[in-house]
Structure formats: C-alpha cells, structure tokens
Amino acid sequence: MEFPYTFKKIFCTEQELLGDFSLSRSYLYQLVKDWVDEGNDPIEMGKLPRMNIKNLWDPRKFLSWLNTHKLPKQTKYYNEKAQLKKAEAVVVSLTNNKRKTI
Q1: How many domains does the chain divide into?
Q2: Is 21 a member of any domain?
Q3: Distance of CA 1 to CAs 22, 38, 44, Å?
Q4: Other beta carbons less than 10 A from residue 82's beta carbon
Q5: Which of 1, 31, 49, 66 is the most buried (most CB within 10 A)?
Q6: Is residue 43 within 8 Å of 61, Cβ to Cβ?
Q7: What digits encode the pLDDT tens for the residues 47-83?
Q8: Per-residue pLDDT tens digits for 20-50
Q9: Which range of residues forms the domain containing residue 45?
Q10: Domain contains 89
C-alpha cells in the first residue's frame, strides 16, 4: 500500500524514527518485543540488521507494518440486521439530542 507521506531518508536512525512517528523509545521496544514474542523477525518491521553501533530503520516499511498490524481496522457489516441495528442507533441518538435541546 502506498502512502502519500515521503520520508527525507531511505534509512533513518532510531532517534529520527522516534521523532518522525512521535513514539517513545520504550514503546518502540515494546512493539519489537511483542513482535518477536509472536515468533516474527524485527526485519519485517523495518529494522535493519545491526550495523556498527547505530540501530537503522526503514521508515516506509515501518509505516506499512504499523498500518497492517497496529492501526485499528474499520468494522464492516456483512448482514442486513447489523446494518439496520447501527442505523437505528443513529436515529435514537439523534432523537435524544433533539429532546435535550428543546
């Protein structure tokens, strides 16, 4: 999936990644730990193999990983009863709001 956001560099350091995504270092490492505990490789998240002292990341790959694994998905209703129930909830909500304003 292509995103409209373009990054300044192909690879970035951990600090640059944290700044671009507004993440704390502990939360990033918690994401990595949870991913590894599930039996996956951090390379799939965009983390490059350790080179020298720096931890390098691929921000495009990390963004697509976040989109597929961490961002909430929109609920889709496949049956008519669920759609009707959702529509009824909106109508009840609107009528309750009108009662409050009168």
Answers
A1: 1
A2: yes
A3: 22, 24, 15
A4: 12
A5: 31
A6: no
A7: 988 766 678 899 989 988 988 888 776 666 566 666 6
A8: 888 999 999 999 999 999 999 999 999 988 7
A9: 12-69
A10: no
